[in-house]
């Protein structure tokens, strides 16, 4: 059985033409070296009886200086960006082993240590509270915070029951609510979690500093941290 290869070769020819066009477009960009070569060639081939006008020549030199300055500035900014990223990563490494508050609805209760958190309140409320649940979702009680103005509302949970007895260490869930127009509405809640490691995520735009948080499946960007405890 014969196979018609006409379409194959036509497609191959089109791909080659596209690559050549892309290469030609790239070569059309004029760098500072090419600009200087053109300027020297112009001077070598000018008419001695009608040399290049001084004003025009100075303008061309100014263009070259501007082009070279932009090229050098671009290289300097790139180097500065790399240095800044390395410095930020080094500074962020000091967070390993410390607690930061990130957007979450559960965290770990450690023996003898309170759970700390922050509520991001978009508007004032006549009553704000945090509902606490076990890791399995069983309701334990509320942390009453009273009337609060718009802004960040910090709170702590001591991990004690109504009789003053400590709950066992482990994961606990939290839900923040604020009454608006007589109805409780759930609010964004930031809970303290331990930082296990730090990485520079070069794959993302801007190379964000990423924090690996204990008990969380995905890393959190340093810029998304609400509070460093």
From TrEMBL:
Family listed: Belongs to the FlgD family.
GO BP annotations listed: bacterial-type flagellum organization
UniProt keyword Acetylation present: no
Residue ranges constituting the FlgD Tudor-like domain according to the UniProt record: 88-226
Functional note: Required for flagellar hook formation. May act as a scaffolding protein.
Annotated keywords: Bacterial flagellum biogenesis, Cell projection, Cilium, Flagellum
Natural source organism: Marinospirillum celere
Keyword Zinc-finger attributed: no
Protein name (record): Basal-body rod modification protein FlgD
All copies of domain FlgD/Vpr Ig-like, residue ranges: 109-180
């Amino acid at each position: 059985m014969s196979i018609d290869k006409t379409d194959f070769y036509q497609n191959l020819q089109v791909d080659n033409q596209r690559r050549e066009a892309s290469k030609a477009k790239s070569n059309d960009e004029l760098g500072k070296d090419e600009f200087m070569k053109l300027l020297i060639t112009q001077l070598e081939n000018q008419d001695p009886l009608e040399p290049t006008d001084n004003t025009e020549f100075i303008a061309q030199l100014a263009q070259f200086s501007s082009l070279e300055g932009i090229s050098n500035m671009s290289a300097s900014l790139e180097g500065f960006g790399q240095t800044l990223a390395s410095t930020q990563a080094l500074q962020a490494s000091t967070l390993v082993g410390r607690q930061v508050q990130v957007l979450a609805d559960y965290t770990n209760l450690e023996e003898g240590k309170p759970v700390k958190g922050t509520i991001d309140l978009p508007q004032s409320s006549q009553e704000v509270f945090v509902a606490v649940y076990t890791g399995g979702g069983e309701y334990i009680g509320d942390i009453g915070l009273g009337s609060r103005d718009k802004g960040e509302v910090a709170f702590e949970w001591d991990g004690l029951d109504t009789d003053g007895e400590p709950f066992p260490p482990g994961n606990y869930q939290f839900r923040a609510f604020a009454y608006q127009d007589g109805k409780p509405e759930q609010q964004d809640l930031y809970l303290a979690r331990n930082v296990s490691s730090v990485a520079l995520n070069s794959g993302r735009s801007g190379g964000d500093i990423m924090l690996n948080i204990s008990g969380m499946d995905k890393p959190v960007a340093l810029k998304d941290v609400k509070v460093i405890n």
